[in-house]
Amino acid sequence: MDYMIGLDIGTTSVKTVLFDDKGKVSGYSNNLYPLYQDKPDMAEEDPEEIFSALVDGLTTVLRKANLKPGELKGVSFSAAMHSLILLDDDHKPLTRAITWADNRAVNYADELRENGVGKQIYEKTGTPIHPMTPLTKLIWLRNEHKDLFDKARWFVGIKEYIIYKLFGVLKEDYSIANATGMFNIFNMDWDDQALELAGVTRDQLPELVDTTDTVSGMNADYARVIGIDPETPFVMGASDGPLANLGVDAIDPGVVAVTIGTSGAVRVITDKPKIDPKARVFCYYLAKDKWVVGGPVNNGGIVFRWVRDQLFAPEKITAEQMKIDSYDLLTEIASKVPAGSDGLIFHPFLGGERAPIWDANARGSFFGLTRTHTRAHMVRAALEGIVYNLYTVMIALEEVVGKPKSIQATGGFARSALWRQMLADIFEQDVTIPESVEGTALGAATLGMYSLGLIDDLSEVKKFIGVANVHHPNPETYEAYRALVPIYIRLSRQLQTEYKAIADFQRSQEAKKQSDDVK
C-alpha cells in the first residue's frame, strides 16, 4: 500500500497525519508549542520549538506505522500564513517567528490604508493591508528596529526555515509567498512596489516555486533521527487556508469552505484571480488554475478558550476531574439557552480582526446585557458571535464571487453538534461536515499525491472524504437570527469609530505596567 504524510504547521501545533492511498488516517501526532505574547500586540513563536515539534511528530508517526521500504511515497507541507523570521548570513534566526496574530505593525498598516498606497498593493497582491502581513511587519521593523533589520540577510517564513533546516535550500511556494503581501498574483513574481515599501530586495527572499514542486536529499542526521529515507520527496505544498478547501472537497465553483480552528475563514475557489473593489477579501494561490478567494477571521476557537478559562474556570476543573472534555461541558451548558441568547450579542474581536473589517484595533464586547442574562447566555452568545462574524465575511464574498451553491465545514468546531447546527441556522443553508476533520492535512496529502503522480486530478479528493454529515437549518431559529444579525453588523460599524481610542488606552496602560515592573 502507498502512504503519504500531510504535515500541517499551524498556529499552536504541528499535526503529522499519515494517510493511506484511500485517504484513511493510518497515523497521527499533534505536537504543541507555545505562543509568546510578552508585550502588547506581540504574538511570536520559537522556530526551533516548531522545528522540534515537526521532527518529533514525523518520528512518532513513522515509528508507530512501521512501514515497509518504499511504502512512504512522500510528505507534503501545509503551513499557517504570514509568518516572518529574520535570518543572518548563516541562516540563523535573528528573531522568533512573528506570526499572523502579531499586531505591532498596526500603525504602518493604518498609514498604508489611509494614504491609498495600500489599495494599490492589494489590487496587485490580493492580500488586504493588515499588520498580519510580512509586508507591514518589515516596514515596522525597518522603522523601529533598524539595527536588527540591517543585520538580516534573509527574510523567510516558518515553512521556508524548516525546509532549509531539513534540506539546505531556501525555497518558497507561490501560495505562502502570495500571503506575504509582496507577491504579484498577475505576473507570479515578487512585486517591485511592495519590495520597495518593505525595504528588501529579491536576493534577500527565497526562490519562488510552484506548490507542486518537490525537495529531497534530507540532512542525514535528521533523516536518521526521524527514521526516513533521506531521498523521500517532500512536496512544497501550500498555505493552510487553500489546502483546507481542498481537504473538504470545496474546489468546485460555488462550493464554500468554512473553517473554524483557533482562527477561522470562509473561502471559495475560482479559476483565476479575483479582487474585491472594497478590499475585504483575499485572493490566494493553490495550484494551476485554482485560486482561493475568501476572508480570514482572527477569532475562532481562541474565543471559546477564553470563555472557558475566564468565565468557566470552575467547570474546567470539574471537567478535568471527571475526565470529560471541558468544551463539551460548555456546549452542553450553551445548548440550554435559546437561539439568539435572549438578545445578548457578542462581538468576538479579542485579538483585533481581519475580515471583513480589517481592523487590528477592534475589541470584543457584549451588547444587550440585562439582569436576566447568565453565564450560559454568555457562552452561547460567544459561539454565536463567532458565526455572525463569519456570516458577514460570507456577505462580502457573495459580492465578489456570487451566491454559494453549498457549504463544506471543517476545523475543531466540527466536533461540536451545537456549533455545526448554529452555522447552518445563521447561514440558513445546508452545511456538510466531511467525515475527516483533519481537512488541512488531507489537503496537503492530496496535493502531494497529485504532485507525485499518485492521482491524476485534485478532484480525486472526493474519494478520500468519506461519509459526510449534513446539518439542515432549523426554521425555528430564523426569526431570532434574522433580527440579530443586522444589529450585529450595525454595531460593528458604529463601534469601529472607537476601537482605536480604546486600543490606544489599553496599550498605554500596558506600557505603564511594564514600566512600573521595571522600576
UniProtKB/TrEMBL annotation:
Entry protein name: Gluconate kinase
This protein's record includes keyword Kinase: yes
Domain Carbohydrate kinase FGGY N-terminal: 3-247
Record keywords: Kinase, Transferase
Species in which this protein is naturally found: Secundilactobacillus paracollinoides
Record family assignment: Belongs to the FGGY kinase family.
Molecular functions per Gene Ontology: gluconokinase activity
GO terms for biological process, alphabetical: D-gluconate metabolic process
Segments forming a coiled coil: none
SUPFAM superfamilies: Actin-like ATPase domain
Pfam families found in the cross-reference section: FGGY_C (PF02782), FGGY_N (PF00370)
Record-annotated Carbohydrate kinase FGGY C-terminal domain positions: 257-451
PROSITE patterns documented for this protein: FGGY_KINASES_1, FGGY_KINASES_2
NCBIfam families referenced in this protein's UniProt entry, alphabetically: gntK_FGGY
